[in-house]
């Protein structure tokens, strides 16, 4: 890593600008300079020059008129095209409105296939499962309808993502009843629906059913999906059972399987299992690591503060021909920033600028947080302005970094500026932001403002959690306000006895 990025020696991030430095204009050499014309000596020459000048002026006038006419025609054509596009959109939206009226007029069974299928696709993509099922019922009523494996599988996958495995089971049965034989892909989609909802017993029973059904044997994709769900639930024992089952059936893991394992082991800080999985992956002839493998490994070591190990892995992956992407640099920036290695963080930023890597919202959030941690509010604010100028919408993570930095610097007026920005934007706030706001006001001893955060949360429809009250109690305790601290403690104790979905009392 050290060989890849030349790092400055300063302890804090230097002033940084992503705008390229302006270069002095270079005078282009003239290879064939025009000779200097001598003054005309006779009246005939003078008349000839005037006539030539008038002709040049006339040609320029014609050219100017032609250019204006061309621009006028282009504007007219653009207006016509725009009106046509608007007309098409309006007609399509009017047609799609019929979709919502399932039991509408008698001609609802004669809708155009494209209209119904587009409406179904839009709802599946947006995970609007209730509306998607209504459109699917209408689809089945059409005179031209024919059962399709593809549509059923897309719906089952959507229901799995929406944690509706029972409805996915109903669709699976309907698919079979309509004459579509179950195959490995449809079984895998149903298995995924149950595993995503944590119903592993049902998912494993479907796996056993697949083994017995002809032509529906599980493949590496089936096992990879089930392994991923088990890893999300931190059920590593089930993962080992599945890997053993794969070896018995002689199903070789692929790159996706290994990347899923490496990423999960890294997030769980199970570095021994992560490294052994990586070594096993390297021993496979037809399963090479890729940039996802590299990013998962770097995130695991960098997130745990093992910077040197992260740099060593980065160098090895690069020597293996794996090129970094924007996620790689975001991981490096985040790791260096949290470790306080601002010199190396700045070197990565310069590298990204040199090789034209476009910053994402994650990149901005990482560097804004790093400069805020370093106490460099000027650079933090510059990056925030630059982020907005590039039409990137700030998130709660961005706002939390700003509030936290201002709280540590004692800049209450700056926090008020952030709140004004929120009022004029459509950023959706969460409880993490409000907890950060409570911490900032408590750190500065502004207890009236800290208590006012609870009122702000109520207006925004956000319910305080244990962290909210514990942060307030900590602020009161550190400032010797024992009565207020005890009052908050009693609220926490009573809240623990209540339903977690029930609204907690005001202070």
TrEMBL record:
Gene Ontology MF, one: mRNA binding
PPR repeat placement: 183-213, 219-253, 254-289, 325-359, 360-394, 430-464
UniProt xrefs under InterPro entries: PPR5-like (IPR044179), PPR_rpt (IPR002885), TPR-like_helical_dom_sf (IPR011990)
Source organism superkingdom: Eukaryota
UniProt-annotated stretches for the region Disordered: 1-76
Coiled coil: none
Basic and acidic residues: bias regions: 46-76
Keyword line: Repeat
SUPFAM superfamilies in UniProt: TPR-like (SSF48452)
Regions crossing the membrane: none
Biased composition (Polar residues): 1-12, 35-45
Family: Belongs to the PPR family. P subfamily.
PANTHER family xref list: EXPRESSED PROTEIN, PENTATRICOPEPTIDE REPEAT-CONTAINING PROTEIN
Name under which the protein is recorded: Pentatricopeptide repeat-containing protein
């Amino acid at each position: 890593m050290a060989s890849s990025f030349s790092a400055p020696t300063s302890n804090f991030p230097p002033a940084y600008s992503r705008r390229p430095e302006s270069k002095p204009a270079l005078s282009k050499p003239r290879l064939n300079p025009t000779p200097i014309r001598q003054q005309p000596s006779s009246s005939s020459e003078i008349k000839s020059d005037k006539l030539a000048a008038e002709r040049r002026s006339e040609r320029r006038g014609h050219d100017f008129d032609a250019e204006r006419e061309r621009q006028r025609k282009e504007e007219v054509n653009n207006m016509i095209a725009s009106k046509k596009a608007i007309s098409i959109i309006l007609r399509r939206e009017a047609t799609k409105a019929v979709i919502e009226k399932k039991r509408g007029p008698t001609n609802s069974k004669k809708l155009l296939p494209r209209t119904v299928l587009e409406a179904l696709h839009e709802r599946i993509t947006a995970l609007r499962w209730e509306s998607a099922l209504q459109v699917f019922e209408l689809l089945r009523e059409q005179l031209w309808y024919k059962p399709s494996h593809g549509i059923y599988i897309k719906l089952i996958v959507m229901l799995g993502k929406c944690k509706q495995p029972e409805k996915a089971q109903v669709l699976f049965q309907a698919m079979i009843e309509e004459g579509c034989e179950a195959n490995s892909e449809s079984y895998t989609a149903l298995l995924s629906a149950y595993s995503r909802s944590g119903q592993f017993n049902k998912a494993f029973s479907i796996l056993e059913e697949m083994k017995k059904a002809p032509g529906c044997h599980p493949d590496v994709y089936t096992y990879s999906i089930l392994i991923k769900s088990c890893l999300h639930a931190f059920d590593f024992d089930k993962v080992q059972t599945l890997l053993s089952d794969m070896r018995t059936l002689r199903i070789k893991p692929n790159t996706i399987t290994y990347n899923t394992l490496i990423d999960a082991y890294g997030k769980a800080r199970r570095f021994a299992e992560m490294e052994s999985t990586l070594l096993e992956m390297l021993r496979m002839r037809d399963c090479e690591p890729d940039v996802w493998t590299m990013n998962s490994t770097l995130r695991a070591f960098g997130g745990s503060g093992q910077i040197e190990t992260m740099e060593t892995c980065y160098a090895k992956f690069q020597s293996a021909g794996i090129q970094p992407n924007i996620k790689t640099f975001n991981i490096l920036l985040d790791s260096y920033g949290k470790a306080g290695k601002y010199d190396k963080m700045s070197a990565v930023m310069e590298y990204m600028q040199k090789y034209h890597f476009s910053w994402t919202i994650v990149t901005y959030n990482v560097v804004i947080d790093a400069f805020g941690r370093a106490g460099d509010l000027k650079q933090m604010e510059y990056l925030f302005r630059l982020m907005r100028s590039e039409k990137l919408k700030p998130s709660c993570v961005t706002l939390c970094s700003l509030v936290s930095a201002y709280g540590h610097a004692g800049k209450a007026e700056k926090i008020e500026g952030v709140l004004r920005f929120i009022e004029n934007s459509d950023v959706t706030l969460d409880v993490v932001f409000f907890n950060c706001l409570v911490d900032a006001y408590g750190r500065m001893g502004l207890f009236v403002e800290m208590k006012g955060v609870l009122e702000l949360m109520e207006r925004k429809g956000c319910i305080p959690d244990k962290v909210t009250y514990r942060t307030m109690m900590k602020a009161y305790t550190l400032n010797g306000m024992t009565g207020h601290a005890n009052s908050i403690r009693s609220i926490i104790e009573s809240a623990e006895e209540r339903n977690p979905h029930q609204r907690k009392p005001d202070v």
